[in-house]
């Protein structure tokens, strides 16, 4: 294998690890903010229901809030400790590969000189 092929393979794997770390962080963030999301949705729902709108108009405004609330409840049931562990592991893997790529590029530049 040529050094450029190895480097491309490493960079391809890095893209996967970056995406994995971002996904893990997003899941942690969603889980941590689930309670706030539920409170916010319920406040908006209360404002809508206590307003002077017709029943059909209220229903149209409440349906998206119900979906948000359901998603927030689902997120709140996730195991935050496991999600944080997964996030940490993904970030470590990503950072290690980034260091390895940097080191590999440095060695390539030395050998080319």
Automatic annotation (TrEMBL):
Keywords attached to this entry: Coiled coil
Coiled-coil region: 7-34
Protein name: Uncharacterized protein
Species in which this protein is naturally found: Alteromonas pelagimontana
